C-alpha cells in the first residue's frame, strides 16, 4: 500500500458575479492539483502537478491569484479540463492507495468538483486528515495546526513555495514521513472526536464546551435543534429556554438560553456545508462571560434595516414643454 499526499488550490466566484448568482453546489473550483507519493516505508517518492482550466468560475479571483501566484493567462494557456486532469491524476495514483491531506477541506472540494462533472468519487473514500494524526502523535492538541507551524515543531526547513499545490503537498509528505501512519489510521476515529469536541485557539474566554453535529438539511432545522432538543443545561442536563437568535458574520448565530436552576448560558453556533448536509459547531459559554455580554449588547442595539427609497415620478417636469 502507498500513500498519496494531496493538496489542491481552488478558485472562488466573485461576490455578486453571475457565477456566484447561479447558486452552484460548489464552494471552490479546482485550479491546481499537487501530490506526492509516500511509500509504505514512508520514503518520499515521485510527484504530480497539474493546472486545471476553470469551467464554472472562469474569472480568477484576485485574492486567489495573489495567494497562489497563479495568473489567469497562465491558467488559460496551461490548464487542462477537469475531467482530463482527474483521469491523468488517477492513472498516476495507481491502485491500493490511501490519500492524506493537511486539513478537511481538500477532499470535500474534490468530491464537489467530481459531483458537478458527474464523475465517480468512490476512489477517494480511503482518506485521512494528517493534521489529526500529527496532533495525536505530538502534543495531543485539538487545534488545526497550520502547515508552517507543524513544520517548525518538527524542525523541517521549508524548501518549496507555500500555497502552491505541489509545494504544500511535498511539505505535508515530509511531516507524514515522521509519523506512524499505520497507528495513526487505527486511532483516527478517536483523534477526530477529540478534535471536534475540544477547545480551539480562537474561542472567547468563558467557553465551557464545544460539540459538533452533522447531517442537518438546512439552517432552519439546525437552529431549531440547537435551541430545542440539543439545548441542555451543562450543569443539570435539563432543557433550557432559548432566546432570540442573532446573526453574526460567517454563518454564525448566537442566543442567550436560560436554565431555571442554573441561570443563563450563551449558545454560539457556526454552520458549515459538508457532504451529507450542514455541520454545526456549538459553543457554550457562561452567562457572565464576555461573549454573553456581547450578545446582550447586540440584542439591545439591533442593526437598523436600510430604508427603501421609492422612485419619484417627476410628473410635473414631464408635463412642462421642452425648451426650444
**Strand portion:** 15-25%
Number of helices: 13
**Strand and helix order:** EHEEHHHEHEHHHHHEHEEEEHH
Shape: globular
CATH class of the largest domain: Alpha Beta
Catalogue the unreliable spans. 199-203, 311-324
Averaged pLDDT? 86
CATH architecture of the largest domain: 2-Layer Sandwich
C-alpha-based Rg, rounded: 25 Å
CATH topology of the largest domain: Nucleotidyltransferase, domain 5
Helix-residue proportion: 25-40%
Question: Which sequence of strands runs across the widest sheet?
Answer: 3-2-1-4-5
Number of domains: 2
Q: What profile does the largest beta sheet have? A: 5 strands, mixed
Fourth CATH level, the homologous superfamily of the largest domain: Ribonuclease H-like superfamily/Ribonuclease H
**By helix and strand content, what is the structural category?**
alpha+beta
Terminal CA distance = 88 Å
| Beta-strand segment tally | 10
Write a concise synopsis of the structure shown:
With 324 residues, the protein is α+β, with helices and mostly antiparallel strands. The protein has helices spanning 18-21, 62-68, 72-78, 82-93, 105-116, 130-137, 147-153, 165-176, 181-186, 188-196, 219-226, 290-300, 315-319; strands at 2-11, 29-38, 44-51, 97-101, 127-129, 207-216, 246-248, 252-259, 263-274, 277-286.
Characterise this structure.
The protein has 324 residues and is an alpha+beta fold. It folds into two domains: 2-195, 2-Layer Sandwich (Nucleotidyltransferase, domain 5), CATH 3.30.420.10; 201-300, no CATH class. Helix content is 33%, strand content 24%. The chain has 13 helices and ten strands. It has helices at residues 18-21, 62-68, 72-78, 82-93, 105-116, 130-137, 147-153, 165-176, 181-186, 188-196, 219-226, 290-300, 315-319; strands at 2-11, 29-38, 44-51, 97-101, 127-129, 207-216, 246-248, 252-259, 263-274, 277-286. Strands 3-2-1-4-5 form a five-stranded mixed beta sheet, sandwiched between helices. Helix 6 crosses helix 10 (188-196). It is globular. The model is unreliable at 199-203 and 311-324 (pLDDT under 50).
